[in-house]
Specification:
- The structure holds two protein chains of two kinds.
- Chain A contains one helix and six strands.
- Chain A is mainly beta.
- The longest helix of chain A is centred in the last third of the chain and has 6 residues.
- Chain A starts with 27 loop residues before the first strand and ends in a 17-residue tail after the last helix.
- Chain B has two domains: 112 residues, no CATH class; 241 residues, Pectate Lyase C-like (3 Solenoid).
- Chain B has a 20-stranded mixed β-sheet that branches. Chain B has a ten-stranded parallel β-sheet with strand order 11-14-16-18-21-24-27-30-33-36, with no helix packed on it.
- Classes of the chains: A mainly beta, B mainly beta.
Chain lengths: 138, 456
Amino acid sequence: MEKNINYSHGDFLGQTFLDVDPSEFSNSTIVGSCFYQESSWDVGSLGDSAKSPLVAVFPVGVVNVEFKRCNLDNVIIPTGSTVDSECTNRKVRIQNDNEDWELAAIDNKPVEPLSKKRLIRDGDSVDPRDIPTTRDLQ
Amino acid sequence: MTTSATAVWEYRGASGNNDQGGGYDSGISGAGTDYSQQDAAQLSLTDCATSGAGVTTLTSAAGGFTAAMIGNTINISAGTNLNIGTYWITARTDTNTVTLNMAPDDGVGGVSGGTGKVGGAFAYIHDRHFDFTLHEKVEAGNTLWIKNETMTLVTSVLASKDGSAVLPIKIQGYNTTRGDNPTGTNRPLIVAGALGFEFDNFYDIRNLRLTTTATNGLKLDHQCLAVNVKVTQSSGSVRSGIETGSTYNNIVFCEASSTNGYAISAHSAGGKIYGCYAHGSFVGIDMGSNDALAVIGCIADTCTHGIRVSSTAIAAMFCGNTLYNNTTGLSGTSTGHTSWAVIDNLFKDNTTAIGLAELIPSAFLDYNLFHGNGTDIASGYVTKGDNTVSTDPVFTDAANADFSIGSGSGAINGAFNFEFFEDLAGTYKRNIGFDQNDPDAGGGGATRLINGGLIS
């Protein structure tokens, strides 16, 4: 498929394109762009109330997009589209410890912090059971 | 041999690829052409092989190896019995045979069916490039050159490999030619999303732009230097743009904003912030350590706290800064401070110019300009000196971050005579605030960019 020049190698952090004509995306290859959608701390979305952080970024009707090397965290992938092994497409939400945690696909509970390596180095727990029950800002 | 100090690495966010060679070392005997400085690989093979475990001779029936490839890396990304990674070509026998710096196998047997590429730039910085448990690691003294393209991160990068005092690891952005020291949008853009950078010890990072929502957008641990780096932190949570984690880091000519957090957060002893522009943040520059802090020649613009001292600060120095349109210009939210020097700062249009938690018994506060503030010094916890200036600094266009001052400015020649200071125009006036003397400005002159154009 043809490389999508308008949406490749772009910084689309936090942006959505719901009002854009689907034809701008459909049947194209998007390379090296960031569409990440931050899911801010929200007490109503944690613990037993854990909710999905996924956001519809692309308009209804987009089909057959090939994503390569893109940051698609918290992004709903359009129907019939593919994501290559260099993309990241996780559920992520800020927890009470002010860290970004990857969430389980099914129940949206925190599984592993994105900064796992740093936290281990610093002697901090990476066990989701150790996340404070109330918000802990520095 | 492992990677040597003379190695360089090339990153091109849009046109590179992480399965390409990416590296070149002129220090390897017989080193030829630097093929890392091109978009595509110079040679691509699918039949790389070695004759057994521990063998450093790499062969390919298809071939294509040349003497000019000595000193380049071959990135072997797939194959049987392979230890995936980049290897240095140290010698060439013929078109079908080269010698590598180390055996590329996994210890089980010889490599077969290996996919290898010589030359071509990497696309993005990956955490494993700094992983000291892997053989493809960056080493002290290496330079990572990043071309002015958009690089999207797909992993957080904790660069656990250390440089050294004499061999720092350099991360250097460039526009079209290595070393051209770009400014503004000619600097490469790294788009990180929830991912960020943390560099351990002895890193020298220059000429980059970074957008992020990560906990620490750009974190410097120990004896690191950041120059001409712009970090835009847009998290909805309290997070840092640039942060120092350990001791003795310098942040120079950088720009940062953090919508709900700290544009620049220096939470380590001996932190120095020079010539930086912090704006649109909860805290512009946060000094969270208690020893030998210095903020010199910076601008804090439209923050809740322009410069904030959030822990007990001993021997802090705030000199030549411009604090404009902040809720509190210079803010001390903790107690126990002593031995402060507050000299040549320009406080303009802040709700409170200086707001402290308690009286500082030992502070030198003089040669500062206060104008248009709701309150100059809250509660009288420090006292203005005899050489305080109170006339309008007459910024050229502060709303658009042009803090140059015109010929009628009260800041001109009002500063303490440090002798060695000079202004950008070379006229050796001693001006208060960040030194952007522009005699032609004051309403109609040519625009002078912050830090002589380093920041945009």
